[in-house]
Structures are given as structure tokens and as C-alpha cells.
Design goal:
With 271 residues, the protein is an alpha/beta fold. The protein has a single domain, classed as Aldolase class I (TIM Barrel). Helices cover 31% and strands 18% of the residues. It is built from eight helices and twelve strands. The strands form three sheets. The protein has an eight-stranded mixed β-sheet with strand order 1-2-5-6-7-8-9-12. A two-stranded parallel ribbon has the order 3-4. It has a two-stranded antiparallel ribbon with strand order 10-11. Helix 6 crosses helix 8. It starts with 14 loop residues before the first strand and ends in a 5-residue tail after the last strand.
Length: 271
Amino acid sequence: MSALPSNQKPRCASIYGPVKSWRFGRSLGIDPVGIVSTCSFNCVYCQLGNIQQQTTQRQIFVPTSQIISELQVITQREIPLDVVTISGSGEPTLALNLGEILAATQEIFKQPKVVLTNSTLLGDQLVRKALSLADIVAVKLDAVSSNQLRQINRPVETIDLSDIIQGITQFRQEYQGKMTIQTMVLSAWTTETQAKYIHLLKLFQPDEIQLNIPSRNRTVVRQLESRGNDIQEIRAYTCENFQLITHEEINAMAATIHNATKIPVRYPTQN
């Protein structure tokens, strides 16, 4: 690896933040994927930009020893944190050492451990076993039809909505921690789409529903800084913006879902 220019600060491969999260507060990020963005999705709204490597093949991207070493450095700084979140440069469950990372983090930090997953690997028993070590798992459900999945999440060809639904169902049956459903809402949904979504929520029975909207610029070309929400750093790159759903629309959608499911619904535009 070539040396960094003298005017460029070094970039950490596995630890970033703290990130200000409307869902979890001050969150220290652990990135088990690292420099090359790798995911089974290539979501149209992803702040990482176009995913550099799309796959469902699990492997070790960042050695557990490296992550532990960097976490120990962070503890010396006494940074106030609410949670430690495993996410970063793609789909964290692709990391074969996810369980090791969670176990090691548990030894270092007392704060709750959160994993953000796109749900595509939940059908894998080893993935579910690793996730059992997390306090909170936020599973993604952006689509209620195969066509919507292809348009929004753009998964690898081997993944379909039925795989995701089955994986979430299996995980919910086994997981003892707090499971939330995270859904990115790009525009107002039809009554039919909402009805299908509510049907799935009643099936999964999550502890909480999180309706998200794009709040970070999407870099056109992959930049490591896009893992977090440092606006000043991201503005240095060419970005894309999305037309957001209105406050009235997301508020009405949240009310409809809560009334139908009686499950707590949160969204970033609420006061």
C-alpha cells in the first residue's frame, strides 16, 4: 500500500464515528468489511454509492485482531457513546468473523451492540448464531414485491423477496434480543403496498418499526468517509440527492402502520 500524502489524514479501516443516529444516539461504528464496499444489495439510495463488489459469499475482510486493536485505542479517548454499531462499508453479515467481532466488542464496551443487516443472509444458520450475540439487530425490509426489491435494493440475481421473508421469519423465531424492522421510504406508498407491508409486520412481530428516509448524500464514486455522517467531508465529493417523502406522508404512514400492528413506529421527521 502506498504512503499517504503528507496533507492527508490516515483513514481507519474498521472504526469510524461516533455517528449521530436518530435511531440509536451517539454510535461508534465498526466496519467489518473495510476499504472495498461489498454487499449483496446495491441500493439506489445507499450513501456508499455504487457497491464495488456485489456478492453473497462470506469471507474475512478485516482481521478480528485489527478491530480489537483499534477498539482498544478508542477506549483510551473516553468518547461518550450510546451504542456500538456494526455496519460500515456494506453488509456486515458477509464477514465470517462477525461473531468473533461481537464477542470481542462485548468484552471492551458495556454499551449495547447493534447490527444493521439487509436481511439477505438470515437464512444461514451460522449468520443467525453470530447475530445472537448482538443486543439489537435492525433487519432491512424495503420492499413488499419482487419488482420493488429489484428497483430499490438491486440485489444479486440469486436473491428474491421470498428468501428475505423466510430469513427474517427464522431469525425472529430464534433471536432473544431486540429486533427492529428498518425500512427506507423513498416516496408515498399505495394503499396496496402498505397493506402488504403491514401483513409482513404482523408475521414478523418486531419489537419496533423504523421508517427511514434518505438523510445522507449519496456519493457518486465510493468514498470511505461516506460510512458516517460528517457532512463537511462528504461535501468534498460529487453527490446525488433524493426527493424526500413529505412529513405529512411519513406521519400518516406511521400512524396507519401503528394502528394496524400496535407495534411502536419511529421515523426521523417526528418532533
